[in-house]
Design goal:
alpha+beta; three-stranded antiparallel beta sheet; 55% helix; 19 strands; single chain; seven-stranded mixed beta sheet
Length: 949
């Protein structure tokens, strides 16, 4: 069975076409075909089928589509269920885009060997697989992003074939083909440049000059820019009647000396990044220093490709993010501990063992990385050896002289990646969107910009801390990284040496072709130099330590100070001129030195110091003992969870979730029942919603924080759709409770606005604003308040109006007329919809059952307007609080108050965490905080566990 996506989606079996007529089934199949043998989560399939506003039953409908596809395709085991999604088991030989990729790759190899004629035949055979635009007619914005990339590969191949034919002297035969390509893509500069050369070499100089004039006018009128260097060089060649530039697949150099192309070439469908003429120019391949970084504003204006703009803006955001972190870590104060590295002696590399291992230090890591032929680097080191510092400096170094054609290094921790269930590139795209939510701005960067950056090879992942993943995932992760490495232009990975070696030994897999280096222990002379670098002239406090390091380089003190972590801790702990570092020489063994330094660290950084002058609020002060208790609790909390990520939106992991988050709304519901129907109704309301809240918060799926901002522009169509849904819900409520037409209209309008305003919470407009814990808290707070207020107004108004104006029509009453079955079903349906929003699938059943009990209660309508108003206000507050506590920010507020009341954290926890970050106790990794080092977290957790016994 063959699958074709290079054109309209088509399935063929034995030469016969297999019909897949359902658009939803087509989109599900296309999403699976684009990631063969990788698990595609149901959530991503939902996005592929419904671009916006998927129905509540979207996941179930996707499951139905997969079931129908299995029946339609009729091949056992072709689509298998795997973890949270589905996986297509078909080999790449059945996929036309994979055969196209192999054909173009084979053509490049032939051209590299001098066989241009054979290369032309091979690439033309590959192009014959195309039947039209990729995935034509599917109408899915998510799939459209991949389709655009696939179409880009076809254009690259056409231009590549034309270039080879020009070099073979077949000028006339490519004129018609390039003319059609230039008409189809009037702003594609490379096609125009080669058309100019083909016309000139065919004796049509005037036509060649006319092509240049038309292109220059079009670029000026539509984009306000001039033609790029390749077009200008071709123009000069025509004017000089010269042969023009010869860009074969081995040079690909522009006349101005840069390796970049003006139109931002895309990658192969499998993610490999190569220029269309065969050049694979990336930051890790360049042996010589690249040209200076151009002005980003000028670069942005000179290229219309939205992915190029997204990459440039992402580079700016990453630079600011890690420059700030480097400053907080004092990495240049005056400089970090000198860390040396050399090729590892562990059996974790491919190829022959080197007899002379290259060596280097932090200042040489960028040059060393660029010299790696495969672009794959693994950095191993012991705990505290400086792997993260090396990763930060590598990232900043690659960004410092990045050119627009080079990928953007992005430093990420892989702790949230499960390689058994998520492809590395899929995880990378998801994390990009989480850390830099501005990439979701479709108006600026087009649909699927984060995924587009990844699959087009514009992102260079720097994965810091493979060993910090769960131990049972290490071997799987190494294999998964190796399999996915072909999809990125280069990558760097750090890990503890023993863990990486064990993973390679257990799985038999390793990162093919990677250069594996290992950080060496800090030399005694380097440790001494760092400890005394900031000492005033004539100060001798450190002299006993320096003498001991030099006299006994293998002693306990030297072994303890053999890692940058411990050397940094020593300088911090003895920063005060009144302290005596000489006491470090009195400890009998390495462990006692390390324990002493870890214990002395916090009291030192939280010691009272004069406040610096500031026009803003005075920085907070914390008593060292209390700060250490609070940090010890947080460390113990992370140790119990088996993670290093301190996520503010999950405080409920350290508190009785159901009671703290489920009971407060139940009290308000009980008060509502008391006002509306007396003690009996109050008891039913309170117990029903108390049980629902407790169960939902224990077993439901709370959504994570939203990375949004308030935007109205461009939301008209989506607002109209949501408004219509709200109208339907409001009318349904009004009719179910037999309200008058005027009241039903009022409810419809209020529900319409209540549902519609949510579309004004859109992705941030700019990627420059990288996420940090504080900004994420603020954006989710805005979203949570918007949801809370809209639901409170809608449901409070409905309840008050229903209590005041219902016609008291009863349908099927039980228990002496105190319970109505029809009203109970209506209430259960409404509550189930709300439960789906609050707690995912479990919330449908939990809140649906509560809605049946509450909605079926029969009691007289309000005698006085004040009763209806009070009941409506109370019910609205209860519903709003239920919604608010189900959001990340609401749970954070409740959890923060509970932890502060029990003395485990300070009342202003986020302020405390931000202050700890500024003091260097915590580090910031995107939206989460982490302890400066795992050793510090482990020590504090052990202290907390010991004090709790």
């Amino acid at each position: 069975m063959d699958f074709r996506v290079l054109g309209p989606l088509e399935v063929r079996s034995g030469g016969e076409r297999v019909e897949v007529r359902s658009p939803r089934q087509q989109r599900v199949l296309a999403a699976l075909l684009l990631e063969p043998r990788a698990v595609v989560p149901i959530a991503r399939l939902v996005e592929a089928v419904w671009a916006d506003g998927p129905p509540a039953t979207a996941a179930k409908q996707v499951q139905n589509c997969v079931s129908a596809l299995r029946d339609r395709l009729g091949e056992h085991g072709l689509i298998v269920t795997d973890g949270p999604g589905y996986r297509l088991t078909a080999g790449e030989d059945r996929l036309d885009w994979a055969r196209f990729r192999r054909g173009v790759a084979a053509a490049r190899e032939l051209a590299a060997g001098g066989g241009l004629a054979e290369a032309v035949d091979a690439v033309q055979e590959a192009l014959a697989l195309w039947r039209g635009p990729a995935l034509d007619g599917l109408g899915s914005p998510v799939l459209a992003a991949r389709a655009v990339l696939l179409d880009g590969q076809r254009l690259d191949a056409v231009e590549l074939c034309a270039q080879w034919r020009l070099e073979l002297g077949r000028h006339c035969e490519v004129v018609e083909e390039l003319s059609a390509l230039a008409v189809e893509h009037p702003l594609r500069e490379r096609a125009h440049a080669r058309l100019m050369l083909a016309l000139d070499r065919s004796g049509r100089k005037a036509d060649a000059l006319a092509v240049f004039t038309a292109l220059r006018t079009r670029l000026a009128d539509e984009l306000g820019v001039d033609p790029g260097p390749e077009v200008r060089q071709a123009h000069l060649a025509v004017l000089r009647d010269a042969a023009g530039p010869r860009h074969d697949d081995r040079t690909a150099a522009h006349p101005d000396g840069t390796a970049a192309h003006p139109d931002g070439t895309a990658a192969h469908p499998d993610g490999t990044a190569a220029h269309p003429d065969g050049a694979a120019v990336h930051s890790n391949r360049a042996a010589a220093a690249p040209p200076a970084t151009p002005d980003p504003v000028a670069t942005r204006s000179a290229t219309p490709d939205p992915l190029v703009r997204a990459a440039d803006d992402l580079a700016a955001a990453v630079t600011r993010q890690w420059t700030a972190e480097a400053e907080l870590r004092s990495l240049r104060r005056p400089e970090p501990v000198r860390v040396r590295w050399a090729c590892t002696g562990r059996l974790v590399t491919t190829g022959p063992r080197r007899t002379t291992a290259p060596r280097g230090d932090l200042s040489e890591v960028v040059a060393a990385f660029r010299a790696v032929p495969t672009g794959r680097l693994v950095v191993l080191g012991e705990p505290g050896a400086g792997k993260t510092v090396l990763a930060i400096l590598l990232t900043l170094g690659l960004l410092a002289d990045r050119t627009p054609d080079q990928p953007v290094p992005v430093l990420l921790s892989p702790t949230s990646w499960d390689p058994r269930r998520e492809h590395l590139l899929a995880w990378l795209a998801r994390r990009l969107l989480e850390e830099y939510p501005g990439l979701g701005n479709t108006a600026a960067y087009g649909p699927g910009a984060a995924a587009g950056l990844v699959v087009s090879g514009r992102v260079l992942p720097v994965l810091d801390g493979l060993d910090e993943m769960p131990a049972d995932l290490h071997a799987t992760a190494v294999d998964a990284v190796d399999r996915a490495a072909a999809g990125v232009p280069a990558l760097a990975l750090t890990s503890r040496g023993a863990e990486y070696e064990r993973a390679v030994r257990e799985s038999g897999a390793l990162l093919t072709g990677a250069s594996v280096v290992e950080i060496e222990p800090v030399a005694p002379d380097d440790a001494a130099a760092f400890l005394t670098a900031r000492a005033p002239v004539g100060e001798t406090r450190w002299q006993p330590v320096v003498d001991r390091l030099r006299q006994d380089p293998d002693g306990p003190l030297a072994r303890a100070l053999s890692t940058p972590l411990m050397v940094n801790l020593a300088r911090t702990a003895y920063a005060s001129p009144a302290s005596s570092p000489a006491e470090l020489c009195r400890f009998p063994d390495t462990a006692s030195v390390e324990a002493h330094l870890l214990d002395a660290y916090l009291p030192t950084v939280y010691a009272e110091r004069p406040a610096y002058p500031s026009p803003h609020a005075r920085p907070p002060r914390y008593e060292p003992g209390r700060a250490q208790r609070w940090l010890s609790f947080l460390a113990d909390h992370l140790q119990r969870r088996g993670t290093r990520d301190l996520e503010w939106w999950r405080p409920d992991r350290a508190l009785p979730t159901g009671l703290v988050l489920g009971l407060p709304p139940a009290v308000l519901y009980a008060l509502t029942g008391l006002v509306a129907g007396g003690p009996r109704v109050a008891l039913v309301y309170g117990l029903a919603f108390a049980a629902a809240g407790v169960l939902a918060h224990r077993h439901g799926d709370r959504p994570g924080p939203l990375r949004v901002e308030f935007r109205v522009r461009g939301t008209g169509a989506r607002f109209g759709g949501r408004f219509a849904i709200g109208v339907v819900v409001g009318v349904g409520f009004g009719l179910a409770w037999a309200l008058s037409p005027g009241v039903v209209v009022l409810l419809a309008v209020v529900f319409g606005f209540g549902f519609g305003v949510h579309v004004w919470l859109a992705a941030p407009a700019e990627v420059h604003r990288a996420v940090d814990p504080g900004s994420l808290l603020r954006t989710d707070r805005a979203a949570a308040l918007a949801f809370t207020v809209s639901f409170a107004l809608c449901l409070g108004l409905f309840y008050g109006l229903a209590f005041a104006y219902t016609e008291e029509v009863r349908f099927t009453s039980w228990w002496g007329g105190r319970f109505d079955v029809v009203l109970a079903l209506a209430g259960g349906f409404a509550a189930a919809m709300l439960g789906r929003f609050l707690a995912g699938r479990p919330g449908v059943l939990i809140y649906g059952a509560a809605g049946v009990l509450v909605g079926g209660q029969v009691f007289p309508r309000a005698d006085r307007p004040g009763e209806a108003l009070a009941a409506g206000v109370l019910f609205g507050l209860a519903a709003g609080l239920t919604v608010g506590l189900s959001r990340a920010w609401g749970a954070w507020c409740a959890g923060r108050l509970w932890l502060a009341a029990t003395g485990r954290t300070p009342p202003r926890l986020m302020t405390f965490l931000d202050d700890a970050h500024r003091r260097g106790v915590l580090r910031q990794v995107g939206a989460v905080y982490q302890f400066r080092h795992a050793r510090l977290q482990e020590r504090l957790a052990a202290d907390y566990a010991g004090s709790s016994r």
